[in-house]
Write a structure and sequence with these properties.
Biogenesis of lysosome-related organelles complex 1 subunit 2, BLOC1_su2, elongated, 0% strand
């Protein structure tokens, strides 16, 4: 009977070992499949990049020409900075003048109302 118990334990351990082995093999196969899929995707992406590079190879010269043109525009627009600064200064002065004119307008209105008040006190309506 002792041998039977030992055999049962051994069989149970063998089954457990087999199950774990099967699990690891399944996981290993799944990981390999995922890696193969990723490799296939990378290979496809590389082929697509090569195809796009071949397709648009002639546009490289156009892009270089446009880059030079943009750099020339930047250089030319840099000379306008002085004028932009002058315009900003003029706009600031105009804003300040508007504030002064608004204040003077309020004073004139106040003076007009005082003059009318004094005039009406000295010359009441008949």
């Amino acid at each position: 009977m002792a041998d039977t118990e030992g055999e049962e334990r051994g069989t149970g351990r063998d089954e457990l070992a087999d199950s774990l082995n099967d699990l690891f093999i399944s996981i290993s196969s799944m990981v390999k499949g995922e890696l193969q899929g990723a490799n296939n995707s990378l290979a496809l992406l590389e082929k697509m990049n090569l195809r796009v590079a071949e397709e648009y190879e002639s546009f490289g010269d156009v892009a270089s020409g446009q880059k030079v043109f943009v750099e020339q525009l930047k250089t030319k627009s840099g000379s306008f900075d002085i004028y932009v600064q002058q315009i900003d200064a003029i706009e600031q002065q105009v804003t300040e003048f508007e504030a002064v004119i608004s204040m003077l307008d309020k004073y004139v209105s106040l003076l007009e109302s005082k003059v009318q008040s004094v005039y009406q006190q000295h010359h009441p309506p008949s």
